[in-house]
Amino acid sequence: MEGAEGDELDPLWQDLDWAMGWEGTEVTPQIRTLIEDHHLGAILLTTKNLKTAQETAKLVQDLQTIAHQAGHPVPLLIALDQENGGVNSLFDEDYICQFPSAMGVAATGSPELAYEVANATAKEVSAVGVNMIMGPVLDVLTNARYQPLGVRATGDDPQEVSQYGIAAMNGYKDAGITTCGKHFPSYGNLDFLGSSLDMPIITETIEQLSLSALVPFRNAIRDGLDAMMVGGCAMANASMNVMHACLSDQVVDDLLRHELGFNGVTISECLEMDALSHDIGVRGGTVMAVEAGCDLVLLCRSFAVQQEAMAGLKLGIENDMISRERIMVSLRRVLTLKSKCTNWHKALNPPGINQLATLHPSHLALSTKAYDNSITVMRDKGHLLPLSNTLYPDEELLLLTPLVKPLPASAATKQMTENAKKEVPNEHDKWIHRSSIMSGEGVFRELGRSLARQRHGKLLHTSYTANGVRPVHENLINRAAAIIIITADANRNLYQNGFTKHVSMMCSMLSASGKKKSLIVVSVSSPYDFAMDKSIGTYVCTFDFTETAMSALVRALFGEYVPQGTLPGTLRKSRKVQKSRQHWLVESWNHDRDHRGLLALIKAIEKTSQPGKPSGLSGATAAAFELSAATESGDPIEEMHYVVRNSSTQALFGFCSTYYYPSSHLGVISTIFVDPSKRNLSIGHSLHQRAVRGLICRPGIKTLQLGASLPTIFPGIPMSDLTEGARLKRWFAANGWDISSPRLLYTLTIRNLAHWQVPEGLLQTIQRVSFAFDLIHGRENAATALEHVSAHAGPEVLALYNLALSDEKSCGVVRAKSPVDGSLVGTVIITRPYSSLSTYIPILQSSESNGSDGGGIGGILAPVVPNSPQAAIVLQGLALLGIKQNKAHRSHTCVLNCVSGEERDVLLGMNFDVLDAFEELSCKAERFSDMNLG
């Protein structure tokens, strides 16, 4: 590939790169031919190629040696599906650790743990010579209950999927492995409409996808994703009719590259998929994939099909359907990718089991921690857990398990014989990586043995099938005091749902007649089986059914630890299915201890914001909330900030800042924010209650305010997202605030000052009324301006003016004077780019608003113009002088903040744009004094 220099067709053809796989655990003549004669540059290893870790390391070394001896200028790209949970291509009980699925990791509530797990996984596969992981999975389960991806995906919340996907991606990259996001544009909401040869279809519009499914892909691209696998699904909506996404330039070139800005390597879905090969044929499909913009074409199994694909591409080049330039673009991208993860020394000398043996103890401990933290008790109405407290020693426990497929990551799969009976997979199963062998009994048999050891033999165990509740089940249920039913994807295997509901009804009837029958339902795959069904009183989720997961389940059921997992996505957010509200320990802010944690918390929140949307947090540090400088020359401000934190790691889960202005008897809550991975767990509620309690204890307090003009980060409830704004208003209303009469505040901007022109007639109008405008710096002539602000604005704005007047070099105040008596009728603050005020108003340092010339952002801040017949003209005059000063300071952009609802329309007439909108709430402090703030 990388040696293509000449203009002849044959050398170019010989130097093309491919992504291929083959069947067999050793080097075959076919794979040797592909490497030596066709310059195969990338190989995807699957379970069919891999035995032990030691044999895998030797196989990879052999492949790289063949490439080296064949004159390849750079090593092979060796990729692997190692998603954890049920999808691990490489399984070795002695050296490779089992970790939870993506959804299981998200259930821990810890992006830090997601990073650790991904990093450990990458170190293990790197030890055997693999240099690329086909992950992370970035699909959003828009229709979670019925999607075949299941627990391979993080969940149904796009921001949460982003956060955990990026954490995993960084874990891979920091171990020296390149990453490949999948499955673009989404396998999270597929419709299965026809036969097994028909493609599943995405019917959402691009606009709908942009709001949900595309969010994690967009964010991962922004954070440095190396490669992207483009799926083979169809797309059908008003603007797009695509049969196969990976063969469409609308998807690969237009949507992925141009709209989302992806510059890395694109990999097609396997062209040997039934629907792809049946609809188009591999030869034509290969040409279409390259034309669409794919850099690597994936052909998984058949040597004959791989030869057909190469012949098709050769024909496409000979017929000028594909240009040399197009090929070279892809070659350069693949070269860049390989340079990140491999070199000949590394490729030819995989560290192998020596390194794996060193890593294994710590990775085993991490595996135990991850599984223990992921096990989720969603409901336990009857307080049946732990079983060690509710079952007498002589009572029998019944385990009922379904006949399901073992997971590839399971030892049970490894033990299957070659002549095991095969089943024909349905449409859904073609889209999930699982063995087709119908026998999950091995895993569940070991689960039964573990339960029996805990119960000293008092265990009954049998399986159930689509035949429903049989006499054998009825007899065992009558004998047992407690029943555990295992379900795995009961929403798609409806017999499990019916069986469980039948047993539940039997247990209720028997218990009502005086016979104790405790029922525990355990979902070992999708947590959606009975998530919303409250008739199942005790419901536990494990997120996979590997041996490691089942071991963690047994320990949780018998109280060896208290499971703390929570259901990811909207299930975590649904208060209907949550436990009672949790109270978190809220501590007072300590700068030395907490400022680094606050910075990390701000960055975590920033990563979940939509690109292009304004964010008052961008660039904020702890200094933004520390207003001591504002008290040096003005009224004192009492600061009280609070945190919910992990005392072991010093990580902040939540932060709240409050201020008290004694002279105005005003208490202000300026910010409450929570780690995105821990929202809807009552952290914000605990911070809010503590903040209100702290403020209403202040002597003389009369008013509470939500939202602050200083620091100018959240002047109120953000309203740029109406749905989120409405949700927040409901939340604050439920927590005691009067939301009936909010004060509307706006942040306005002129994005390109160089092209801004004074609206026609404006200058003459201002000059006609004869107001006098001047600009002052420092405190020498500031007394009248401060008196004006004190009389007509709140204490926060006064503090802002005091800060501005303390910075003579980069801030000034424009005054407007009455032509009648010289009294002040208006003031506004003007700031140069990068002034000291940008510490407290981070939007003034936002890189998103900076122009390409690096001129920076000028500020026109906190206009104070009392109501009068000519207030609009005064405001326009102040704004016009501010714009002129910003231009003189060579600002590319200006920001005008603290604009009230009445002032907004006046300024929009001057060609300002709305950057953000807020609703400031206030109410009497006595409103909270009678509330339960415990």
TrEMBL record:
List the GO molecular function terms: hydrolase activity, hydrolyzing O-glycosyl compounds
Q: Name one GO biological process term.
A: carbohydrate metabolic process
Annotated TM spans: none
Provide an example Pfam family for this protein: Glyco_hydro_3
What keywords tag this UniProt record?
Glycoprotein, Glycosidase, Hydrolase
Which family is this sequence assigned to?
Belongs to the glycosyl hydrolase 3 family.
Name used for this protein in its record: Glycoside hydrolase
